[in-house]
Amino acid sequence: MLSLAKNTNNISLTNPLTFNLPTFTNIIQKVSISNTKHIFNISSLLHNIGILRIKSWLSKIWFPKLTKETLLTHYWKTQNYTLLFHLSQLARNNITISLPSQVTNYPFSIPEHTYLIYNILPPTPNNLTINSLKNNKILFIEQITTANNNFLLPWNNIYLRTNKATRGHQPSWFTRLLNNTSQPYSNYMATSSITFNK
């Protein structure tokens, strides 16, 4: 039987690295499922708060919808978001639960097969890149390409697609895209693959 002192720190209890016990992992999974179920099923107030917390976290990491991959990729950014921490624990243990469509689907105004800017950026963009995308409200490839999606717009003309004036100098992530692409972006959207120059 597992017994802990009454004054055991909460961080120790919720950190799976504290103990390497299958039983402890099982406890974390059960607590995560129970807390998530209570948030979304007990009252409409908690349900709405849960959705707002998820949307707040998605805004922080600059991502449009919640997926298992998003939780796994940004696991270390969930520590201050209890609900997201529980959801990431479930994702890490390959446990899926149904969540409200407000956080798992694109907003109605965005077509489902819209390509994210992350599809053409390096796999794990740094904070400077994410902050630049967020400050300039760029989330989709279509926001930085011409109307036929064949070419990148000049940085100063991005506002035509984002309805927001760009901030600051042309960022390094955009310069790398300009220098590295060897085919029109519409080819990428048709084939879901893009070739970068070496």
Describe the structure.
This protein folds into 2 domains: 18-104, no CATH class; 117-191, no CATH class. The longest helix is centred in the first third of the chain and has 20 residues, at 22-41. Helix content is 47%, strand content 0%. Helix 2 (22-41) crosses helix 5 (82-92). The chain is mostly helical.
Low-confidence stretches: 188-198
Task: Tell how many strands the DSSP assignment holds.
Answer: 0
Whole-number count of domains: 2
Q: What is the N-to-C succession of helices and strands?
A: HHHHHHHHHH
Residue share in β-strands: under 5%
Distance between the termini: 57 Å
* Alpha-beta content class: mainly alpha
Helix proportion range: 40-55%
Task: Give the overall pLDDT as a whole number.
Answer: 80
Shape type: elongated
Q: What key phrases describe this protein's structure?
A:
2 domains, disordered C terminus, 198 residues, 10 helices, mainly alpha
Tell me the layout of helices and strands:
Blueprint: H1 10-14, H2 22-41, H3 44-61, H4 68-73, H5 82-92, H6 101-104, H7 127-135, H8 159-162, H9 172-180, H10 185-191
Helix pairs in contact: 2-3, 2-5
At a glance:
The chain has 198 residues and is an all-alpha fold. It is 47% helix and 0% strand. The longest helix is centred in the first third of the chain and has 20 residues, at 22-41.
